[in-house]
Fold this sequence. Notes:
Elements: E1 3-8, H1 15-21, E2 23-26, H2 32-40, E3 46-51, E4 57-71, E5 74-93, H3 94-98, H4 107-110, E6 116-119, H5 121-130
Amino acid sequence: MNYWLVKSEPNSYAWNDLRTKSEDIWDGVRNYQARNFMKEMKLGDQVFFYHSGKEKAIVGLAEVSEEAFPDPKDLDFVAVKIKSKQPFKNPVSLIAIKSTDLLSELLLIKQSRLSVMPIGKVEADILMKMSV
C-alpha cells in the first residue's frame, strides 16, 4: 500500500463534498508530474486530503477506489476515484508539518504548488498520529 496527498481549495471542492458523496472522481489535474503520480495510485492506497488556501491543513483520509483512467475532459491527463474514510479529529496544519523535522522532505513543503504527491510510510504514520 502506498500513501498520497491530494490538495484542493475548499471553496472549489472541500473534504465535506467528498464525505457527502462518499466516493468521487478526482480529476482536473493539469500538471504532468501530478498526472504521473496519479498513474501510480493503486486500489486501496491511502490518500491524505489537504485543504489549500487559507486553511492549509490535512483534514481527512480517503482511499483510492478506482485506479487511473483517462480524464474525460482532457485525454492527456488521468483521473482516479477516491472514497472518504475518516475526517481528522485534529486537522494537521502546514505550520505543524513544517515544524516537524521528520516531515521536512515532504513534497508538500518542497514543491508547494504540486496538487498530487506521494508520501512515505514513515511520514504517513507521523501525520496520522498528529491527527488524533
